[in-house]
Amino acid sequence: YQAKRDRTGVEVYESKRDSNTPDRLGLLGDLRRALDAGDVELHYQPKVRFDGKVAGLEALVRWVHPERGKVPPDEFIAIAESSGLMPHLTEYVLESALGQVAKWQAQGLKVPVAVNVSPRDVHTPGFAGSVAARLARHGVPAGALQLEITEHVLLEDPQRAADTLAGLTGHGVKMSLDDFGTGYSSLVHLRRLPVSELKIDRSFVARLAVDNEDAEIVRCTVDLAHSLGLLVVAEGVEDDETWERLRDLGCDAVQGWLVAAAMPPEETTAWLRARGSRGWRRPADVAAEA
Ligand code: C2E
Ligand code: MG
Ligand code: MG
Ligand code: MG
């Protein structure tokens, strides 16, 4: 999909270029209505450190279409991005995530939450200020919010992106670089982005235990990130062997089905409470102790 942009860099929806227009337009309308009706939900997936401490939760959007069932986020996010609905979706997600953080805070659960934002958001004028205002309205400290961005934010108008990100970090919001290694990664980009965390894409993590080249890529990424003072999170960790390799390579935290899949809010609350101050422990370690 090649987006056409107007002079201000805003994407213009061009129906002629879209192969399945009726379908996409139908889904777009349904998504808009679902957002208005509050029918879109957030699930939360833990990021845990190797000592078991819960470093944070990532909010992942979930939409169950009344006729089609679960629509994968990658699919409807692409539609939202190419149609101009993205800022609305992001507002919805931020609002919902911050409301949940405030609830957890009131229950004594102090856990930072990461929200994914699209390049479109970062290029929306006033984005940094609107995030700060939203935090204030919910009484949530900026340090409890992390925003996950990708290198795509630098594809167009890098200066505006840099200004927005500087505005956000200036307010105390932490930035995380998602899907590292998949797109336009370069050292120049990394230096330009005011991020405090780097997430290694699942495509490198998945075959880490069996593929020497992937293991080398992960090793170099961890070393590079550490030399720049960044924390490193590996995404998509599904088994013990991968967990052990990542620990040995000096990675800081993991996220993946080995720990937990993304869970609805109430289940997340129960998960956090059950782990308590001891944090998450691998089933293998629990079994070894018993
Ligand atoms: P992401 O931010 O890289 O999120 C990680 C994806 O990997 C999630 O897919 C998560 O469910 C999945 N995952 C987590 N652990 C494992 C594992 O161990 N194995 C495997 N195979 N997969 C795992 P999901 O929820 O389908 O989201 C896909 C993408 O959609 C996200 O990738 C993110 O780019 C985007 N997305 C999700 N929610 C939002 C949102 O609220 N706003 C925006 N702008 N994008 C979002
Ligand atoms: Mg993410
Ligand atoms: Mg990712
Ligand atoms: Mg990804």
TrEMBL record:
<protein>
    <submittedName>
        <fullName>Bifunctional diguanylate cyclase/phosphodiesterase</fullName>
    </submittedName>
</protein>
<feature type="domain" description="EAL">
    <location>
        <begin position="24"/>
        <end position="276"/>
    </location>
</feature>
